[in-house]
Amino acid sequence: MHQPPITTASGIPVADNQNSASAGPRGPLLLQDFHLIEKLQHFNRERIPERVVHAKGSGAYGTFTVTHDISRYTKAKLFAGVGKQTATFVRFSTVGGERGSADTERDPRGFAVRFYTEEGNWDLVGNNTPMFFIKDPIKFPDFVHTQKRDPQTNLKSATMMFDFWSKAPESLHQVTMLFSDRGTPDGYRHMDGFGSHTYSLINAAGEKVYVKWHFKTRQGIRNLSAAEAARLAGSDPDYAQRDLFGAIADGRFPQWEVKLQVATEQQLAEWEARTGWNPFDLTKVWPHHDFPLLPVGVLELNRNPDNYHAEVEQAAFSPANAVPGMGYSPDKMLQGRLFAYHDAQLYRVGTNHQHLPVNAPRCPFHNHQRDGAMAIQNGGAAPNYATVAAEGSHPSGLGHGEPALALHGGAGRYDGRGKEDDYTQAGNLFRLLPAQERQNLFDNLAGPLSQVPQEIVQRQLALFDRADPAYGAGVRAALKVKGVNIA
């Protein structure tokens, strides 16, 4: 069916619905990109009151303990000394399902960690996968719509999903992970977590490095077979919630080793020149042989919430919450989320969501934000404004003190699709899988692919072929077992 040209909600034609406006090909993004802002704002307001993504979740409190000194990389006080402990709250979730959906569905898992530091809250908002489906936030609402329900039938649609993925080679890396055994983890305790994005750390000398965060489960990786995941979805749809709550209640406190990969800007530039991969592209990973994992500490969950709604449902995370000694990167998806997460919480929980105990910092804080709904802490009799420094400002030396980020290129929309390598890393992941896990991957993909039109199947198979010929051949064989004739 013919689709009319895309416009804004006010009817203004959209020149480019594929690429956000950025300062040079790498970004960062520009606030003047009203189409991006409008898409994200409307997307954040599509559900009342449920989260539009990560709606079904579980949470617990715990501690982070430093085991290795990383002060050479960051001045953040939570890392100041081996043995130092920081209180934490963690929320796990499925991504695409509603609040009543099953915990065992094939889906990425959210892995959001809040550190209640003496310098404010640090939120590390990630998933159980180190990569993602897309590299530009302007496509995020479109992508998530394909994972939700068909607007006519109100049913989940394999056709919508694979129509999007088959036209987006950048998704292949994450699709391979999703349909592997790791797409159905055995609860939340037996999976790894990742910050996924590239972040930065700044030390006391003002020197910056780029980092990726990893949480390695001490319980061991454990996944469910597709058949067992489907069985549990019917018999115990709250399986992961039950498992996490029960383990903590019984004193079997789950733990993760916290590690990070570190690289200077120069090292990343040299790596990109050698590999051709953009180190700030969320659809890519930094291979461990190029950037080894360095130990940092241990995360332990040891206390269940007293009230699910107050402490888990109303927990409001944002990757923009970074304490002094930490910073961001030109990762376009991260840049979009710095805006979108906080905006979603303003809508979903309220203007003063940070006043709620689970969201409030545990250090002294002071600002001039006043009034609005649920203004629990409203500043008392203190002034609600800051005076103007007539002779110019005098920085206090507190806060981030992040070094300036050099910008390159003219402001515009840059489309690198078709020129970038979206296949090698997906092929590398495929080749890492043992034989039985490869067969599981083929079978898991053949199920939904057998329900979509041939045109989409052929397009998706072509992507598998480019990642590895054995990948495409395996999926074709699994489709034939299901009675699908592949031309």
Description:
The protein is an alpha+beta fold. It has a domain at 21-147 and 185-364: Catalase core domain (Catalase HpII,  Chain A, domain 1), CATH 2.40.180. It has 13 helices and twelve strands. The protein has helices spanning 34-44, 140-147, 158-166, 172-178, 226-235, 239-249, 265-275, 308-313, 332-348, 424-432, 435-449, 454-467, 469-481; strands at 21-23, 57-66, 85-94, 109-117, 120-127, 193-194, 199-202, 208-217, 255-263, 294-303, 326-327, 411-413. Strands 2, 3, 4, 5, 6, 7, 8, 9, 10 and 11 form a ten-stranded antiparallel sheet that branches. A two-stranded antiparallel ribbon has the order 1-12. It is globular. The mean pLDDT is 93. Residues 1-25 are annotated as: Disordered. One of its GO terms (biological process) is hydrogen peroxide catabolic process. The active site is at residues 54, 127. Keywords: Heme, Hydrogen peroxide, Iron, Metal-binding, Oxidoreductase, Peroxidase.
Q: Tell me how many strands there are.
A: 12
* Mass-distribution shape: globular
Radius of gyration: 23 Å
Order of helices and strands: EHEEEEHHHEEEHHEHEHEHEHHHH
Alpha plus pi helix count: 13
Distance between the termini: 25 Å
Quickly name the level 1 CATH class of the domain at 21-147 and 185-364: Mainly Beta
CATH superfamily of the domain at 21-147 and 185-364: Catalase core domain
Low-pLDDT parts are none
The CATH topology of the domain at 21-147 and 185-364 is given as Catalase HpII,  Chain A, domain 1
Second rung of CATH, namely the architecture of the domain at 21-147 and 185-364: Beta Barrel
Helix content: 25-40%
Helix/sheet category: alpha+beta
The overall pLDDT, averaged over residues, is: 93
- Strand share of the residues? 15-25%
Question: Biggest β-sheet, characterized?
Answer: 10 strands, antiparallel
Region (Disordered): 1-25
Family: Belongs to the catalase family.
Organism: Rugamonas brunnea
EC number: 1.11.1.6
